[in-house]
């Protein structure tokens, strides 16, 4: 059995409203964390993100299964809920949202994850990055096709254009981790919106994790990097950190 320490930060930046949403639900049977970044005018972006988070947590709490199929099904349910909201308000804005979902079975020490859009999941082990999700974005597609390198993911003027998102009428393209991934004490997950990872690169994420401390400490050090880049274009930024410990380890859980 693993003990799992959770912390989160979600801040408005320089926008009129926070269109990011996040949440989590834990039980001995299974645990779920979700981050969503909404888009759309007149408040519809924050509504889309809230629908994603509430739908995922309601579905998971009713059936806390940690599996590839469930990780896919939860985001498909979120897609259905957002599309139902859009159909109920046909004159509204074209709201949509990204989503990144992490599921962990602490007893089996296994994790699965799924995502759509450019909200990311990172897994660190021994203070080194061992996995990160790949964005569903125009710039990532360009990089994959050989029309640029990884550096442009944070600088290209069209970096926010998505190739898949919840709320799009076209077929939803989801990515999933596949079979459950074994996790160990000391592993750390970071789930974050683009307003976060655009300014905190992967090397800095690992360096701040290596500085030690709680999940809250890790997030606060990275948030300081985001805030150092504050300008009048600053986006909302949200991150959830999950750190794994042996159940017998003595830890102090700090939540904001």
Automatic annotation (TrEMBL):
Pfam families: PP2C_2 (PF13672). Residues 5-244 form the PPM-type phosphatase domain. PROSITE patterns: PPM_2. This is Phosphoprotein phosphatase. It comes from Azoarcus sp. (strain BH72).
